[in-house]
């Protein structure tokens, strides 16, 4: 929540590029994905910290912790801020998601089966916001893969999923990056 003097909600955050291969260093509009993600985190008013920061230091800060995936480089700062404010207001872990738009088929014994209903499916993107109480309850992050991280957090804490704007989509390949570049091409 924004304070009465329009100061941003105090929070710490990190851009996650570890365990993502070389893709975070691919260029989008002339900048590395990790750089674009860092700019978005900065625009949100979150104070960046190195992921190597001791967890006890994050606990001592008593602030929410925002994780922004470098593979979601164009997530707008305003969306990160909105997720942060929601985490503070609800004390729930807030996760940015996108609806699944591809056709998904089940596979049984190596045979392609029926189409899965997409209505119940989501793609995790950015950010993942841990309220201060969740930061305090953890000894460390349960992982850096956002799907596994959210599953581990959901097993212990309330989690809310918030639909992210289209430009917040996750890239997993250079082909995905070309789509994101077209979607976010500057005017």
UniProtKB/TrEMBL annotation:
Transmembrane segments: none annotated. GO terms for molecular function: cytidylyltransferase activity. It holds the Pfam family IspD. The keyword Transferase applies. Keywords: Nucleotidyltransferase, Transferase. This is 2-C-methyl-D-erythritol 4-phosphate cytidylyltransferase.
């Amino acid at each position: 929540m924004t304070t009465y003097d329009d100061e941003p909600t105090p929070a710490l955050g990190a851009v996650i590029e570890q365990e993502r291969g070389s893709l975070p260093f691919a260029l989008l509009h002339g900048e590395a994905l990790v750089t674009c993600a860092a700019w978005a985190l900065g625009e949100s008013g979150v104070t960046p910290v190195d992921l190597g920061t001791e967890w006890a230091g994050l606990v001592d800060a008593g602030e929410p912790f925002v994780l922004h995936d470098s593979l979601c480089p164009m997530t707008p700062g305003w969306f990160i801020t909105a997720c942060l404010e929601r985490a503070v207001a609800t004390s729930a872990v807030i996760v940015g998601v996108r609806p699944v738009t591809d056709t998904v088929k089940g596979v049984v014994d190596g045979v392609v089966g029926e189409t899965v209903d997409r209505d119940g499916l989501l793609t995790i993107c950015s950010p993942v916001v841990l309220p201060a109480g969740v930061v305090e309850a953890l000894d460390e992050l349960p992982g850096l893969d956002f799907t596994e991280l959210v599953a581990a957090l959901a097993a212990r804490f309330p989690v809310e999923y918030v639909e992210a704007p289209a430009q917040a989509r996750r890239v997993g390949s250079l082909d995905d990056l070309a789509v994101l570049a077209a979607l976010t091409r500057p005017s």
